[in-house]
Each structure stands twice: as C-alpha cells, then as structure tokens.
Amino acid sequence: MHLVNDGRALDEISDAVDEVNKLKGQANNWGESSRFDASKDKAKFRQYEEACDRVKNFYREQHEKQTFEFNVRVRADFKKTVHARMGIWEAMEKLNTLVDDSDPDTSLSQIEHLLQTAEAIRRDGKPEWMQVAGLVHDLGKLLYFFGSQGQWDVVGDTFVVGCKFSEKIIYPDTFAGNPDSKDRVYSTEYGVYTPNCGLENVMLSWGHDEYLYHVLKKQSSLPMDALYMIRYHSFYPWHREGAYSHLTNAEDQRALEAVRAFNPYDLYSKSDEPVVVEEVKPYYQRLIAKYFPEVIEW
Length: 298
Prior knowledge:
The protein is mainly α.
C-alpha cells in the first residue's frame, strides 16, 4: 500500500471546517435528544471568524474543482482501483497519523475521535449499528493517502453536482470559478436530474463521506440508516439548511432523520478526555466482527 500526502495538513483543514459547522449548527437528534452534549458550552470552541479565512480559501478551491466531469471520472477510477486490503480496526489505526498539533480544541488522534463518537452514542443507549456508524464514519479520510488530488476532494461540506449550485452551500459565491456554474445544463435547477428523483440517484461532491459509503454498502451488513449517516453527515446544505427539496423523495425523509440524529455526536463529542483504547477495543472488535468481513477492499 502506497500512502501519500501530509496527514497533518488534512487534519488541520478538517478541524477548521468542523469549527465552522459547530458554531453554525443546531443539535438535531434520533428520536430523542442526545444527552451527552446537554451541558457542553459550544461557545468555548474557537469563534467562526477565527477559522473563516482559512476555511473560505479551502472552499474556494473545492468549489472551483468539484465539477460534474471530475465526479464522473473519480467514480470510474474508484470502481476499478483497490488501494489497500485491511480490516476496520487496522484502517482506524492508519488514521492515527491524522492529528494536528496546532489545534487548541483537541489533542486527539483520529482513532480517539472515532471512539469518542461511538462511546457518546453508546452512553445514550443508541443501537449497536449506530455505535458502529460513529466508529467508522471518518474512515473515508484514508482517501487522502490513496492519491487524492488534495484536501478539497477529501473533506469539507458536500453538495450536489450536475445541477445549479445551491445558495445554501457555504460560501456560494466561490462557485464563480467552477465552469459548471456557466454550463447550459449543469447551471439549471434540475440539471441532469428529474424532479424528486431521490438522493440515491444524484451525484454528491466526492470526498471521504461518499467514498466510505461506496466502500461499505457492498462490504458490510450495516442497515441503511447507518449508511445514510455515513454518506450524508457532511451534506449540510441539505440536512441543516433545507436545500434540494426539488430532488428529494419520501425515502430521503428517513435519511434526514438519521443524519440529524448522528450530527451532534460527530461535532460535539470531541474533548481532551481521551478514551482508553485498550479498555474499549474488545467491545468494538466484537461489533466490527458482527457488521464487517475480516478484510475490506479500500
């Protein structure tokens, strides 16, 4: 397996993106409120403005380069390429290279963030499959080591390509440099899609969410609600801002409830009280064995 790119650089921009979403977001929950974050002072995280310039520069690059043509091509490459063969826990350990020493909000490695997310879901008494969704939701960031073109095709909020870019996407003005914004088809409301075709039939901007969803939908026994949480957890224009109602169908309402349930565990479970990995490892290895084969093709 050939790993490339600087993991710390990815983690830095990924954390900055999360900071923006923490301060913009509202905690929506699965059936009942998530209890773990009820006493958290969300204002203690660095303010939106402090991350603004760095995040906007990132999104300008992402928004200019995530074209429909790029997304068609990268999916074709995904279908014919196996970058690595390894199990879930080994994949989690690979992500331990992704930690940003300059981030004052946390000193956690990626595996600790995944475990904290899963543990918060577990403490709230949510089902095992949801705990597993929390455990694996960021494993798609391995894409950064598998020859991604940069950070812009791994992290950041996702959006629909192939139709007009929604004004509810963060920094919508930065799409001016994307050629699709001037295309006679891709710049229209429906673009290449039909009314209420359903999100399963639209193309979301390529990144760690979409990559992991396509890896696991054929290599796990996770229920669809867990796969929805994985695929859509960065799809903020839809699950928080209410965009794309002209493309969604009835099944997407179930997906929306699932993603809104998951979101607070992802954003607000990060703290500087790390999980003792060896203490919880047997529990999660049992769940991994329940939902995944021993080896997954990445």
